Amino acid sequence: MTSVSGWRLVGTEPGAAATPGELGARWDDAVQIGEATTVGAIRDSAEAIDALDWWFQTSLSSSAPRTIAFEGVTAPATVFIDGQPVAAVESMFLPVLVHVPAGRHQLSVHLPSLDRALAKRRPRGRWRSSLIAAQGMRWVRTSLIGRAPIYQGPPAPVGFWRPVRFVPESAPREIVVRPVAASGRVDIAGVVSPDTPVTVAISYRAREVARASVHTDATGRYRVAATVPDPHLWWPRGYGDQSLYTVTTLVDETAIDQRIFGFRTVTATTSDGGFGIRVNDVAIFARGAVWMDPVQDADSQATDSLRRQLGHLADAGANMIRIPGGTTYAGPELWALCAEHGILVWQDVMQATFDPPEEVCDLLVKELQDVLRTVSGNPALAVVSGGNETIQQPEMLGLDPAQRRIELLHTILPTVVAVEADVPYVPASPSAPVGSDDLAIRPDSGVSHWFGVGGYLRPLPDVQRAGVRFAAECLAFAIPPSPAAVDRHFSGARVAGHAPDWKTGVPRDRGSSWDFEDVRDHYVSEVFAVNPFLVRRLAPDRYLQLGRAAIAEAMVACYSCWRREDSRCDGALVLSARDLRPGPGWGLLDVDGDPKAPLDALSRVWAPIAVTATSEGLSGVRIDVYNDGPTPLAGTLALIATNSSGHRVADADTAVVVEPHSSVTFHDADLTGRFTDLAHAYGFGAAVADAVEVSLRMDGAVVARDVLIVTPRPEQARSDLTATANQVAGDWYLTLQTSVCLRYVQIALAGWRPSDNFFHLAGGSAYVVRLVPHDGAREQPSGTVTSIDHHLPIRVVVDDQERES
């Protein structure tokens, strides 16, 4: 397939022309754009995009009949060939195929003003959406990105948000792959040329393992089955291998299509009023983020960027993303990379907060069918939801059950999922368990969107009272990007909190008198007992660093609670994965796709093998050891507690065995054999310890570590923190040591990525971090280390003497 190129673009006032020929001299002002794209991608200002009509046009020629495949064109739109309308686009989420005879032709696409379309009077819904002022959007099958204030980011997509391609008449289409994990059987169906021999070959790691052949019927349709002996199962990240198979479709022994698939089962657990995911009959603690991205280009550069972003999340221990209604369906590149990285995908139908009119229900069904058939066989698909806050919205407006019921969500869409996929269906995100009278907004039942810690300003201990069962969204904060990113996009931290370009990147709810930077400031005050306004006024860099640390503190506290076996929580997804514009957005990754500090902190509690240390008051220090993997974990669990002078006041260890896909729990007295009040809960005199460090060692190496700071020592400007880099058997390591405990130590080395970052240090206890080179790495590491308790950076010292391992 080849892309259709050579486009030109012109904008006009609404209704200026009904056909391309009526534009006349207006084409003289057209912009030459080459590859098809959206209007916002090539305009300096996005203000008038929905106010104007837009026309795209190009010339094309072919010696044989061809099909033009519009993989994604925004709606409403009309496609013209040689000035004649040939297709109407009703949904931006459905592909459009246009037949073109041999010869030279003019291809035009008209995208009328959305503002004008919304001005048309139509029946009102049973309730109003809080996301957007234009309630007529419930009639239009297009994205809310760029239109709803909460979706901060690029301009509204108008035009081609996915490629426009030439497709040969004989090209394969409608290919569906359905593997069955229990038997290894794979059913493949599709359409190619009529009365054609078709062969499907299945391979695993470049070795063919099954093959079957069939003839297509008079319409070109075929259905064939092949059986893979002893199929390898695909697992989410950390729970096992990501075993992927390739199915190749051949016609006359020529490969015409190739796609990946995997064997796995996905079921939901709902029997006790909650919601959980089981993959291959193993309970999964889902952690990750909500993925919002308006455009997924297919070029190699964009795919590399996407690979890097998902790689950062996977390396941090994420095993699920959710694609929310109101945004866009993901392209094939994201689905393939999720399967490769072991990241499950929760897929919402593209519907958010509106009361969907019956007239668009058929389109919603077709969209869902198309998505599920396109991703058939991809093992990453885990859950399908009927929409985003579509049940919660009328609930929060006080409507009774009869007024807010949507048949589409409760009867029609679940039937589509049952036919087209092998995954659980949820009526909406959030929603109560099916058959329950609970409200969707309740966190302790079914699926919730939980912002108790966050937008509702609840104290951090509220996470232990809320009883969250599965949070499909949670923990939304305006997260500052790294100091380097702040410098790159804003020339320094002095813009923080007030400059217009900075505030444009801060998420806010429509109509609210506050934004999520105010939320962050609230938790800075709560966690660190400082006035964030005064800190920002005097030291803006420190203001942002305290903000990063307060968010990390909140997120780690929540996940440390949720991941426990006795919490009854089966998963939580941060809102969101990545910023869509520069500034302090919700994303764990910034607009450039680089990790922010809270993701570094989360990586320790998200890791497949993890240790957490938390204060349980009078019960002492609780230690949880997690093993998501498929094999038993055997090692040594060590506890070290140090006081304000860096001297050890407790030092103990014990052998530990953790069975596959499970965890074990200890308290400090289980290791030390005595009462020492390490958590300082009884308060008998001065605190025994400033910090408690727990670590899990296997084969002599630390594989997981956590530090509980019991008695913070803020503003340790004179602490003796040292950072020494040295080479061992060709690899670089950074050794950090201090005599006093330090919170949120951050390593910044150009071209080097530390294996751990944004962590606590216990006084008197050395910590060794491996340094991994990436793009732009120098021969030797060079940079600084700082902490919120030692915020003046210290330089890394390089020890040139290489050591043996």
TrEMBL record:
Which superkingdom heads the taxonomic lineage of this protein's source? Bacteria
Q: Which UniProt keywords apply?
A: Glycosidase, Hydrolase
**Any idea of its EC number?**
3.2.1.25
- Mention any Pfam family matching this sequence: Glyco_hydro_2
**Is this entry keyworded Hydrolase?**
yes
GO terms of biological process kind: carbohydrate metabolic process; glycoprotein catabolic process
Please name the InterPro entries in this protein's record: Beta-gal/glucu_dom_sf (IPR036156), Beta-mannosidase_GH2 (IPR050887), Galactose-bd-like_sf (IPR008979), GH (IPR017853), Ig-like_fold (IPR013783), Ig-like_GH2 (IPR006102)
Q: Which residues form the Glycoside hydrolase family 2 immunoglobulin-like beta-sandwich domain?
A: 193-264
Q: Does the keyword Transcription regulation apply?
A: no
What one GO molecular function would you report for this record? Answer: beta-mannosidase activity
Query: What is catalysed by this protein?
Result: Hydrolysis of terminal, non-reducing beta-D-mannose residues in beta-D-mannosides
Location of region: Disordered? 1-22
Q: Which SUPFAM superfamilies match?
A: (Trans)glycosidases, beta-Galactosidase/glucuronidase domain, Galactose-binding domain-like
Tell me which PANTHER family the record gives: BETA-MANNOSIDASE
What family does this belong to?
A: Belongs to the glycosyl hydrolase 2 family.
**Could you tell me what this protein is called?**
beta-mannosidase
What organism is the protein native to? Williamsia limnetica
